[in-house]
Request: fold
Amino acid sequence: MAAARPRVWVSQPLFDDIVDQLAAHCDVDAAAQVVQYDAAAIAAALRDADGALVTLNERIGATELAAAPRLRAIANVGVGYNNLDIAALDAAGVVATNTPDVLTETTADLGFALLMAAARRIGESERWLREGHWRQWSFSTMLGADVHGSTLGILGMGRIGQAIARRGHHGFGMKVLYHNRSRLPEAVEREVGARYVDFDALLAQADHLLLVLPYSPASHHIIGAAALAKMKPGATLVNIARGGLVDELALADALANGRLAAAGLDVYEGEPDVRPELLALRNVVLTPHIGSASQATRRAMVQLAVDNLAAALGFGPQAGRPSNPVTAKQTTAITTTGAIAGAGKAATGKRPGTSA
Ligand code: GLV
Reply:
């Protein structure tokens, strides 16, 4: 008797023409519309599944896995995978994969766009114009901070951090400083034009600080009231990684009292909800987690996730060897002391857990 075809759950509408490739080997149960799942709904969807293709909005841990005896693989469509409890997946024998590399440059573009928009008050200027205030123009209307020639601080120096460093150094003549769980090889530092400093020096010297590090319990609120107080007065903060890296109430305070000039946020602690304290501020640019959202890159992410899932389930040219497995060992993070929590790979620029 022929072996039963594996069943695959696809949690959200992705690109049908790419997801349909799974139908060559699997029975596919794909969401026809965007769904916000609770734990019970995810558990129900996984109950008869051999594999799943999910986005970062689906949180999966021991509870969701408890009644999924057949499940063998979860392919996350995203580079960050803090929505998955990797230790629980490892314990259940479920392979997890992510989608690094294909989104690096697109996400770095968005980081730079937010930096420019925050520092040069683009969102605020546009609202002001649309609200009909132009007749009140004066020579000091919408004065912002320069980006070219300033000091760019990058916290987290994986692939996306390096792509941002290149833009800053080679494109905008910036002095680029970074802090990371470990120092890059000198040749890489030279190529991206960035210098390693400790966490406090990064905070004290950056005119513009970009967060590009993975989120984990060790990096929770790494930018809180204490870190914000050490930042250069009038600095800009940009977060394209994960909302939980920043204590948003402390940030809202620092923006309201002028300690920081501006911020650009693509990620939030409670997304899709955004704190009213942030929404009320004029000097923060807010985007809805669109770091990798170009047409080409989102398609490339889905293709990579589909390939990873097929391989993890034993099909295709990479059968049994998905290109991007993640394990609990890789779930590492920078801490405020600059020490390394966890036991990840050395910083070769190929860090698997990089967010955003
Ligand atoms: C998006 O945030 C991702 O991790 O891919």
Summary: The pocket of glyoxylic acid is lined by residues 56, 78-80, 103, 291-292, 355-356 (CB under 6 Å). Confidence is low (pLDDT under 50) at residues 332-356.
